[in-house]
Amino acid sequence: YGTRPTGSTTSHTFVITNSGGITATAMAGLGVNAPYGFLGGAYPGTGGNCGSTLAAGSNCNIVVAYMPSVASPADNDTIQIDYNNGVIAQSALRDVTGIAVTPG
Questions:
Q1: Residue 42 gets which letter from DSSP?
Q2: Could you tell me which of 14, 6, 8, 5 has the C-alpha nearest to residue 96?
Q3: C-alpha 37: how far from its chain's center?
Q4: Quick one: pLDDT at residue 74?
Q5: Which residues have CB under 8 Å from 41's CB, separation 6+?
Q6: pTM of the model
Q7: 8-state DSSP, 24
Q8: pLDDT in tens, 33-56
Q9: How do beta strands 89-101 and 2-5 pair?
Q10: More confident position, 90 or 30
């Protein structure tokens, strides 16, 4: 997310791709902690279109916002999307980092 002033909101759209040969089921977004969150407050985020399933060979979007409230040299978190691959439960992880500074 780069360097952002405290009190701001910066969103980013992430593409989730099902490269397998079967529909992913039981999809849910987890692992997003303050100062990060799904834009609008809930998975998949305002503007996102992921649901609880994702057909084989297709993709969808989630929107995660960085909303720092205090200055920090590094706000690190991991976005976690849980799903079932047709055999067992799985998790897809994506690390995110932002730097919060006081506004000018």
A1: S
A2: 14
A3: 7
A4: 96
A5: none
A6: 0.94
A7: B
A8: 999 999 999 999 999 999 999 999
A9: parallel
A10: 90
DSSP category for residue 54:
B
Q: Distance (Å, rounded) from C-alpha 102 to C-alpha 33?
A: 21
Q: How many residues does the chain have?
A: 104
Q: Percentages helix, strand, coil for the chain, rounded to the nearest 5?
A: 0, 55, 45
Amino acid at 16: I
CA geometry: angle 62, 24, 10, nearest 5 deg: 10
21: Cβ–Cβ under 8 A, 6 or more apart, which residues?
A: 56, 57
Assigned token pair, 94? 């994506």
What is the amino acid identity at position 21?
A: G
CB-based contact 75:35 (threshold 8 Å): yes
Dig out the tokens for 48 from the structure. 């996102």
Q: Which amino acid is at 78?
A: T
Q: What is the Cα 28 distance to its own chain's centre? A: 11
Contact of 49 with 21, CB cutoff 8 Å: no
Residue ranges with strand state E in 1-104: 2-5, 10-17, 25-30, 36-38, 59-66, 72-84, 89-101
